[in-house]
Amino acid sequence: MLVKRLLMNELIQWKNKHDRLPLILKGARQVGKTWLLNEFGRTAFDDVMYINFENAPGLKEIFDGDISPHRIIDLLGALHGKRIEPQKTLLIFDEVQEIPRALTALKYFAEAAPEYVICCAGSLLGVALHKGTSFPVGKVDYLTLQPFNFEEFLLANDESMLIEFIKGNGIHELPQVMTEKFADYLKLYFVVGGMPAAVASWLNTRDFLVVEKRQRDILETYENDFSKHAPKNIVPKLRHLWNSVPSQLAKENKKFIYGLVREGARARDYEEAMLWLLDSGLLRKVGRITKSAMPLKAYEDLKAFKLYHLDVGLLRVMSELPPDAIVDGIKIFEEFKGALTEQYVLSELAGKDFIRNIYYWTSEATAEVDFVFADNKDIYPVEVKAGENLQSRSLRVYRDRYHPRLAIRTSLSNLRVDDGLLNIPLYLLFNIQGYLEQ
What we know:
alpha/beta; single chain; 13 strands
């Protein structure tokens, strides 16, 4: 599968930094970290040395004693029968959490041997760091890989010209023939999602049954990880919490309620399990703010939040929405009370570098704005609409109270800006930064 991951541009920038540190590439299992790092090595370096610590537990002995960089480089070179050249060889440590001392060694590479180019990946790295690992704070760079976003999905479907047109078109309404093409791709993305294996299955077979089989395999892998990697005492709680996410999002009020996980459940019973799922990258947490003012973090209500999934396609499968829902016009956007649409919008926003944290807002009464985020200058409320019904009472309440410079509504309606309200079609959210700059 010839695909382009947009994070490759950031990897190239990292490689060319004069003060480059060893890199940790974070992300949930099966989002494509291993493929991306090997492709990075293949295209940007003379050579690659790839080491998977999960498949080579014997390497632990190398890191048990002296972890000076040149000793490690000499040992790894001898074991693999090739020289690791400074600046020219990309050294990849995959599943690095399996040998925590390898993480500790990154500090010494940063201080004493910065000429060696090292990238580390680990699906459960966030979890591993809670086990007393001596982590090289301040001595590593970070990037996070998410599932394919909608722009990457379009690129995988050979639609680069379509993307170029949108990015150069400004804020102008699109002709119907183009909106229909984008809407068709968006419906397809809601079914397939952004997990690389599911995208590859679709590109290779165009068969929804094959895609769904692959998605179920991914979900099964995640559940197997619960038993394999999590503390035994929280495994049942992980399963209960994980399986409750679709029903939590199906509610009109999507605030997370512990009592829906299991009758009588309390926050303290599930805090560790929730942290594990968040650290693994399998869930996303969106906190509630009580006031829309800078900094947003200062007004977060720590007891009220929503939990979303990693991927819209996997959420669809867990929600038991059949793949053939794609043939039902725009119903796929309206099913499940807009939960899939909110999931999609959150994923698109969370992948933008200029957006740090995402919250939601509710009034003392019944008004609720789906998402609120800030850049360096302004706070933006975002109202999510699943179809073309654009009534936004909650957004009106928010605007009357806080008078934002610009409010955002995303729906299936055409692109336009009117009286401080920017309507971005769901399928054009990938260009949100460009629209805000304009």
